[in-house]
Structures are given as C-alpha cells and as structure tokens.
Amino acid sequence: MLLDEDPATLIHHTIGNFNIQPDKLAVSRINESLSTLQQARELRAREAESALKKLSRTLTTLNNHHLETLSSHSSTAHASEIATLDTQKFRIAKTANDLEIESERLSSQLADLQARLQELELQGVDGGDNARRGLVDDEITLKLKIYRGLGIDIEKDKSGEYSKAIIHNEKKGDVNVVSLDNKFSRYFYANYFWQQL
C-alpha cells in the first residue's frame, strides 16, 4: 500500500511533483523588493525629517523677526506718517496745478509780447507812419478831454476839420458857440475861451 512506504520518500516525491523552485525564486525577489522599498522609505523619511527641521528653524526665525517688527512698529505713528504724506502729496499736486496754470498764462503773455515786439521791429526805430499817426491821435484825444473837462466841446465840420467850439459856463448858466477861423491866432482863441469860462 501507499502508506507502507517511507514518509520521507513520499514527501520527496510530493515536493518533486509540485515544482516549488519558481515560487521560491519569486518569494526571494519579493523579499529583495521589500528590502529595497524599506530602504527607500527610510531614506525618504530621513530627507523629509531633515526638510521639516529646516522649515521649523526657518519658521522660528521668521516668527522671531515678525515679533520684533511688531514690537518696534507703532500703528499710530504709521497712520500719522501716512496722513502727513497724503497732505504733502495733495499740497504738491495743487502747487503743480497752480504752476501749470501760471505757466500757460505766462506763455500766452510771452506770445503776445513777442507779436508786439515783431510789430514794433517792423515799424523801425522811428515808429513808422502808423505810430506817428497814433501819437497825433493820442495828443488830440488828450486835448479834447482837457477841453471837455473845462466845459468846451469842439466839433468837426464835413471836411473833418475842427470848426466850432461850444463853451458851457455853468456859473453863468449860458452857452456860447464860437466859429474857429484861421484868420485869428490861437492866442486870441485861448484868451477868448478863458474869458468865457
């Protein structure tokens, strides 16, 4: 019978029938892989621990720096400084705006003066005919104002010449009309006008 044989022989034949050598090699490879994986995990754990310690030291340094900054910093002084700087900023902006407006005004005035200078340079040193005519007109206008201030109105005729003087005497309450002719001198008319006033 089968059980009458030696158990060692039976086990040996049974082992030979199962062919466990590939399984043993697979288990050996798995053990090697597990060992390599364990080593890699330990290495990564050591690196992570080292990085954690470094980050912890950095965090401690930054916390200390933050606490020092907070202890040396005054929020009221900061707010006051910001308000002062804002005031200065607005004052500078207003001054710059005023200067810009003044610059535009002076530029306009400079352009007007340059145009006037060019006009005077074109007239020359003696002022040209237009300038002489302007002076004569100003002289006549001044004389007419003086006469009117004294109560004497001078009127032009159709040819544009002054031919009639109207003398108002407020003290006497009368009006005299005098025709201006070339046959009498200016001295005569001056004396006559003074007598009528």
Structural class, by secondary structure, is: mainly alpha
N-to-C order of helices and strands: HHHHEEEH
Order of strands side by side in the largest beta sheet? 1-2-3
Radius of gyration: 61 Å
Let me know the average pLDDT: 81
Strand content: 5-15%
Q: Strand count, sense and closure of the main sheet?
A: 3 strands, antiparallel
- Total helices: the number is 5
CATH architecture of the domain at 143-196: 2-Layer Sandwich
CATH topology of the domain at 143-196: Double Stranded RNA Binding Domain
CATH class of the domain at 143-196: Alpha Beta
Please give a structural write-up.
The protein contains five helices and three strands. It is mainly alpha-helical and 197 residues long. The chain has a domain at 143-196: Double Stranded RNA Binding Domain (2-Layer Sandwich), CATH 3.30.160.430. Strands 1-2-3 form a three-stranded antiparallel sheet. The protein starts with 6 loop residues before the first helix and ends with a helix.
